[in-house]
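Hi there,

I know you've been waiting on this one. I reran it after we fixed the sequence typo, so this is the corrected version. Both the input and the resulting structure follow.
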Amino acid sequence: MMQIHGDGLPESYVIALTEAADIVAHKNRGYGRDEDPWHNFRAGEAIGINPQGMVMLRILEKINRLTNHYRGAQGVDPREEALDAANLSLILVALIDEAATDATPDADGTTADGADS
């Protein structure tokens, strides 16, 4: 029988959220920078790919790995790939929100990225 967490969510879902947060914190120590946790995704700008595009490419990679697993490929941990895809989706949300905030004009008519509105 499914265990329900105090907030009405399945316990397995709450556990997965906690685990996903731990994974992204651990991986960020290897990929991010203190001043910019999404530095590795911004690096794509050097070849014309915006950070959101870089994240979407990584999500597609995870989906492809999951697809291959369910078609019989060996050596893929579907739970790990699903957690990675979930984390990447949340990183994409953060980058979308950041871009929207940067594009919102201040009182002087400029945006956070310095552009005129």
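Quick highlight: The two ends are 55 Å apart (CA to CA).

Best,
R. S.
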